[in-house]
């Protein structure tokens, strides 16, 4: 049976007069959608339309992957907006497609969740938008490094010393994670800041999280995940060609002891959760276009259903945290 969404997808970019970072939002609207283009990919949305009149609405904060951008999951943002969610996506400074100077380093591990918190603060202080947000239903979703970001917002104490120890042994086999592993100086600084070698950035306003192929599982420990008590959904790639499963998604699954829902998406690779590839991307960054036996559009439809269903059940209280 064909599903007809209740709303159209409103869209606004660079929401603030003086952005601390670029931020885009999608939201429930009633105005008709027209053609929009995000990083060369054509879609449809109601640009700058008024919000639908029957708010307030739950909100999902999106955190993109390393060296990505705020439009990485626009297809999912549009889907959720048409079904009654506000989606807000900041572009992380120093870890985006224009400036990757801090990518995968401890600096950005610390700063990413703070940027998400600042983005949420700004939205809740925005004269037009704050009343549209149901402040009891604020969630967070991230892909790859963004998945690690939202886990920190949920209360994961990221253990940088565990990351360091892993890379002392595995640097040659896991270049992605170990290229910028912390040094002893980094560990000493964390001791001075937090009293131990962890990054602790919990935000109690976040009521549930979705982590899509989350990175940096090597920094996860039993103790570090013990205080994460919100509903959690992990979306795994069937074939993650970038992150080693046994120290990322599978490691989180082992440590969480049944406290989270895990879904493995058939035919998906690590980058299958990015938008459809344009000819330019395919020619110059072909690795971003690699899927594993299934069309990307079909992968996206599966993710939409899984994520939308999870958030709907969290919203109604059917799924609760610990």
Mean pLDDT across residues: 94
Order of strands in the sheet with most strands: 3-4-1-2-6-5-7-10-11-12
Number of helices: 10
Query: SSE order, as H and E?
Result: EEEEEHEHEHEHHHEEHEHEHH
User: How many domains comprise the coordinates?
Assistant: 1
The shape, in one word, is: globular
Tell me the name of the CATH class. Answer: Alpha Beta
Helix fraction by DSSP (H/I, runs of at least 4): 25-40%
Number of strands: 12
Q: Give the percentage of residues in beta strands.
A: 15-25%
The secondary structure category is alpha/beta
List the main descriptive attributes of the protein structure presented here.
single chain; 322 residues; alpha/beta; Rossmann fold; 10-stranded mixed beta sheet; two-stranded antiparallel sheet; 12 strands; globular
3D architecture notes:
The structure is a single chain. With 322 residues, the chain is an alpha/beta fold. It has a single domain (8-159, 204-315), classed as 3-Layer(aba) Sandwich (Rossmann fold), CATH 3.40.50.1820. 31% of the residues lie in helices and 22% in strands. It is built from ten helices and twelve strands. The longest helix is centred in the C-terminal third of the chain and has 20 residues, at 296-315. The relative contact order is 0.12.
